[in-house]
Structure formats: structure tokens, C-alpha cells
Amino acid sequence: MMRKDVNKPKGKTSAYAFFVQTCREEHRKKHPEQSVNFAEFSKKCSERWKGLTALDKKCFEDMAKTDKVRYNNDMRDYVPPKGFGKRGRKKKDPNAPKRPPSAFFVFCSEYRPSVKQQTPGLSIGDCAKKMGEMWSKLTQSDKEEEDEEGEDEDEDDDE
To answer: Where is the composition biased (Acidic residues) (predicted)?
Structure first.
């Protein structure tokens, strides 16, 4: 489970989110004791948002712009603690041995030249589809033979 950094600045708020906040405040003032059905409320808000003119939306867009500036300033000063930063992919070891090709890959490398020869104008994607169709028509025993051939090739590489 991911832990959340409590010191990280609050994210940017969109113009629509500011609009929904004001709608919610208006609803609370009109109906203080009534609880809000989120599904209905959000549908009504989206309909109202779509009906607004660009001039009406401008104040919410300005609020969003100022909040974006606040967020960017906060993020400039923010340094994530160890273990909370961006997590990229692990660097692949260039010296690590490659996995052996799958039975389908061995099949493709064997039959691709003949498919290309039979239909020279075939695109890469169409060629792959054709190979997939040919593979699916093979019996299980034929597929196992291709898999064994792949293992034989892998053993040849080790020598």
C-alpha cells in the first residue's frame, strides 16, 4: 500500500472544480439540512457548466490560473523525502542474459520469409496477422515442436 507524503503540496484545482465548490456552497446555503446525492448533484453541475458562457467561466478559469501558480511555487520548494519521489523503471542490466524466444517467435522467424515471398505487398501488421492465423491453425503438438526448436537454438547460443 502506498503511503502519502503529508508535506506534499495540494494539487492544482481546475476551473470546473472551483465551479463545483461554489455550487456546493450555494446548495448548502439553500438546503443546510439536506444531504447531497453526489450523482444527481454532479450531473446538475455539469449541465450548468456546459450552459455557462465563456465570460461566466472566466472567473473560475482565473481562479484556476492563480491556483496553478500557487502549486508551481509550492512544488519548486518541495523536496520529496526518500522513498516518495518519482519511481521510474529499474535500469535493465545490459549484460543480463536474454530470455529464450517463445515458440511463437521461433515460428514467426521460420515462416515470415515464406509469407513475405507469397504476398510481397503485405504490411508489417498484416504479415503479423497472417502469422497469427497460421499459428492458431497449428495443432498443439506442432506448437510444442516449435517450442523445442527454440530451446535448441538457445542451447546453440550458449556454446
So the answer is: 143-159
CB 45 within 8 A of CB 20: yes
Chain segment 55-111, per-residue pLDDT in tens:
988 999 999 999 999 999 888 888 777 766 666 567 788 888 888 888 888 889 888
- Asked whether residue 19 is assigned to any structural domain, the reply reads yes
Q: State pTM to two decimals.
A: 0.49
CATH number for the domain harbouring residue 27 = 1.10.30.10
CB-CB contact of 131 with 108 (8 Å): yes
Cell of 18: 472551483
87 within domain boundaries: no
Determine the residue type at 83: G
Burial class, 19, CB count within 10 angstroms (exposed 0-12 / middle 13-18 / buried 19+) = buried
Structural domain count, the chain: 2
Find the length of the chain.
Answer: 159
